[in-house]
Amino acid sequence: MNLLAIETSTESGSIALWCDGRLLRRSCPAGAAHSQTLLPLLGSALQEAGLGYGDLHGIAFAAGPGSFTGLRIACGVAQGLAVAHSLPVIAVGTLEAMALASGGERVIVLLDARMGEVYHSRVVAGTEALPPAVCRPDALPVPDTAGWLACGNGLAAHPLLRQRLSQWVRDWLPDLLPDAGAVASLAAPRLARGEGVDAAAVAPLYVRNKVALTTAERLATGGKA
């Protein structure tokens, strides 16, 4: 089974090609827009593997939460390729994929949401225990047991999170970012089970519905008008 995966939830985008359990991963060039680099990167990965789009069995993408623009690009490219080549699509949660990449059994995922907020979720043994949500660092819900792994760039962006979680977290991975390899690893067995859907049925998972602070909100947090 051959599957292409796209991950552009943050500025650090990537793609991955799953070929019968073998994984070929490539990072998007730094400093360039994902909209300009994704298709050439996907094409070169397929060429390196000796495959064409006609050899694929499905397309996967990280659906979010994450950057509004990045999520739209990943979804749009996945839909376009799926329609053009009559392929099913698998939408994978960004935070779910981060939890897998962390290698932890009980994982708190924290992705910087900008605007003074953090996207968060909890995953236990590969199952979502707390669905993706967004909040301010001082409002993050804490678990009632210890021994968790916390991961994601939200930890570096919001130091208060480490203070709030220090009693319950044993291991920290503050540099972990979303990755297409983890998206492909989650999507492949789902595609094999026939869980792919029509391109028109997928959409980004935004979690929140605003992309910028108002002037009053920026001033209230010490920013400039």
Description:
Helix content is about 30%, strand content about 30%. By secondary structure, the protein is α/β, with parallel strands linked by helices. The chain is globular and about 50 Å long. The termini are far apart.
What brief labels describe this structure?
225 residues; alpha/beta; five-stranded mixed sheet; globular; disordered C terminus
**Succession of helices and strands:** EEEHEHEHEEEEHHEHH
| Computed structural class | alpha/beta
Q: Taking all residues together, what is the mean pLDDT? A: 92
Low confidence ranges: 212-225
CA-based shape? globular
Q: For the report, how would you describe the main beta sheet? A: 5 strands, mixed
Strand content: 25-35%
End-to-end Cα distance, whole Å, is: 53 Å
Approximate helicity band = 25-40%
What is the radius of gyration? Answer: 18 Å
Helical element count? 7
Going across the major beta sheet, what is the strand order?
3-2-1-4-5
Number of strands: 10
